Structure prediction request, 324 residues.
Amino acid sequence: MNKTHFLFLLISIVFFSCAKKKDNLPRKASGKINTISVIIDDQLWNGEIGDSIRNKFASPVIGLPQEEPLFTINQYPVKLMEGFMTDSRTIIVVKKEDKNKFEIKKDQYASPQNVFHISGKTGAEILKIIEKNFSKIIQIIKETEIAENQRIIKQSPLNTNAITNAFHISLNAPSGYLYVLKKDNFLWLKKEIVSGNTSLLIYQVPINSIKKDSNLISNIIKMRDSIGELYIRGTEPDTRMITEEGYAPYFSKTKLDGKETYETKGTWALKNDFMAGPFINYAIVDEDHNRILVLEGFCYSPSREERDLMLELESIIKSIKLLK
Prediction:
């Protein structure tokens, strides 16, 4: 074999190997944020099983002033489970089969992807499986959607040196945000959108500002209302941001970067004005720096759904890392 033939053979082998390796890579999952593909035959979808799925996965989002579904659901019959439908990040497959089963398959058709397989011998058995596992399914879907938001944010990041220098944290935010107010221990970032704007507040208060032995949610509301009075005002006199009293805030405990954190969701409003919208507030107990570090996202978008806007803000906040 002469050198020319050998070189041609070597190049062909390398090209074939690379092409085969590329073919073996999973497809990129696609689809809009907070969207689920439900693969289920019409007969089941139009009955009690479909009602259960809609009630659980399209229930109203907590903390929004207008009712919006937790997830947008697209339903397809089982025979159509091919092509672009299998590119969805979240797929729930529901079938009647000869055994009861609940199974989660990661990246079955594309990546990143969760495929939840639910099957039962009878409709009653399928309903039991859905009832037992829906909370876990929702948690996994939400974690995946936040990770997808964070991946998108990293493609065009904001320069956050001002945040790091002021608060000794790292945070990933998209480049569409601008710094609109900088004060000692307070930053306000805002992004203009077609229908309004979204905002991110970062500030810190003394660690004893929120007393654990008293009403935590009351303390947090007082804290954010005092910040609103100082910094967040409308164009008219005496129009400061307050926590809307007509909507009871939702409160829970969680952890961000391993730190005890208080999560509050509710509705903000401008006093003596008509502007209002949802907010999500995280108060981090940072004993290393003897402070309560607060990150809050809120939006104003009266002519547009706010669910996905708030998820982006939550994704930004949950990218936080506290630096030593």
Q: What stands out?
A: Residues 182 and 188 are 7 Å apart (CA to CA). The mean pLDDT is 90. The longest strand covers residues 259-270. The chain has seven helices and 17 strands.
